[in-house]
Amino acid sequence: MHKIDIELIEMTLDVMKYAIGRISATEHDIGKPKKAEELKAIVGETVTPKGVGGEYAFNLWKEHLSKANVPVDHPRNLAFVPASPTRAAIMFDLVTSASSIHGAYWMEGAGGIFCENEAMSWIVSLTGLPEGAFGVFTSGGTAANLSAIVTAREYWRRDETYKREKGLIITSIGAHSSIKAMAKVADVDILLVDSEEELKGDALRKTIDTLNFHQRKRLFAVVATGGTTNAGIIDDLEGIANVCEQENLWFHVDAAYGGGALAADSVRHLFSGIERADSITIDPHKWMFSPYDCGAVIYKNPELAKEAHSQQGSYLDIFKDEGAHGFNPTDYQIQLTRRVRGLPLWFSLATHGTDRYKQAVERGLELAQIAGSMIENNPHVELVREPSLSCVLFRRIGWNPEDYTNWTYENHKKGFALVTPTKWKNGDSFETVSRFCFINPDTTEKDIAMILDSMA
Ligand SMILES: Cc1ncc(COP(=O)(O)O)c(C=O)c1O
Predict the structure, then answer these.
(1) What value, to the nearest 5°, has the Cα angle with vertex 18 and ends 12 and 23?
(2) For 279-415, where are the E strands, in sequence order?
(3) 3 alpha carbon to ligand 1 midpoint, in Å?
(4) pTM higher than 0.90 for the full model?
């Protein structure tokens, strides 16, 4: 298995050919899922005592299995938060894999971690956080949010008064599902302000004022969103920062999706107040054009994260030794062994420069505005709200929830587009609507027009 022979050389060339084809392709099929039983019926047993052979397995991948995936970078994949990794970043993902780097400790991964930190310095500079702030790359926004919540909770519990209290955090219903999920993992209660629109400082203040004495005692953090997943809404970060400061609460900003827009001059002012956060989540695998998986958690005071996350063990002592000194990413988030997942981003940034990132994000913002105008000029559809960041919510006049679902499946089945429905809170009820999220700068106006036409 670990020896080199001619078969291995040939296989390497085949894999490279596939990778070159994928990296240089300008069009991809959209791909459709199949049931696991159907896939099994097609490919049969693949994991056997003697193995089926690399060539055979690779052919199964190329012919059948790869086609059961929806590429996130298809220009008409506008569902959820799609992605669009740069070709340079994808290329360097191959180099990252081939280099076998353990990215937890400087002692083993200094070269890779150095590159990650160069990329991280740029991301931190976009936030405007004060000198000393820094972050690490995580597996995604979920892990970044968890790392931040745990850091905040541990900091709060330094005080003996809170040692045996179950923590409480406040966010809004616009917050991403991972906040609720990660609060559960951290065994923290969560209070949701019942608005999907911008969470304002005043609303936060009112919510805190309704807490009873014990709830207030348990409250230790507020999570604001810098670009909601559903609608691209940025909370009132300045107002929330004021309240957090007055109330001595940890201020976390989840900008997993919207964080890329910090690079865009046209909308940077909307994030005003983010520079006062205690921690921030930004996902380079969303709007910073990194391949999966690459999230980031950034702290105003990284030492607090270290106190919460640094692992201890006699086998790890060597890493704390003077001879092994350096920045250890494992100390600042929940994972020990980690891939140097910021390395592809670093290579792409170094290749293209940060200006190209600005332009690519601006294009996503522009596409949302273009889609908004097209919707306003189309008699069959109407905007649910003005486009925000790169999200556009719109309704097809006269459609019920089933119509949206059927339309999604039909377009997907045809291999034409993936645009999925969502719900928007309208008064006390939730309305099913359609949603675009633009990330890929290669999406064209024609793509948008064709998708809207398919609703007629
Ligand atoms: C605002 C926000 N936070 C967190 C997440 C979770 O990120 P991940 O899927 O990388 O774990 C998402 C994902 O869409 C998001 O949009």
Answers:
(1) 120
(2) 279-282, 295-299, 381-383, 391-396
(3) 41
(4) yes
What are the tokens at 385?
């709200």
The set of protein residues with a Cβ atom below 6 angstroms from ligand 1 is 81, 140-142, 176, 178, 225, 229, 254, 256-257, 283, 295
171-206 pLDDT tens trace? 999 999 999 999 999 999 999 999 899 999 999 999
Nearest by Cα to 140 from 292, 339, 328, 247:
292
CA distance 113 to 414: 44
d(CA 404, CA 445): 22
Triad 9, 15, 21: Cα angle to 5°: 135
CA of 200 to the centre of ligand 1 (A): 21
The tokens for 369 are 């505005």
pLDDT tens per residue across span 65-99? 999 999 999 999 999 999 999 999 999 999 999 99
Instruction: Write the CA distances from 227 to 4, 202, 382, 384, integer angstroms.
Output: 49, 19, 22, 17
Enumerate the β-bridge partners of residue 219.
Answer: 168
Distance between Cα 107 and ligand 1 center (Å): 31
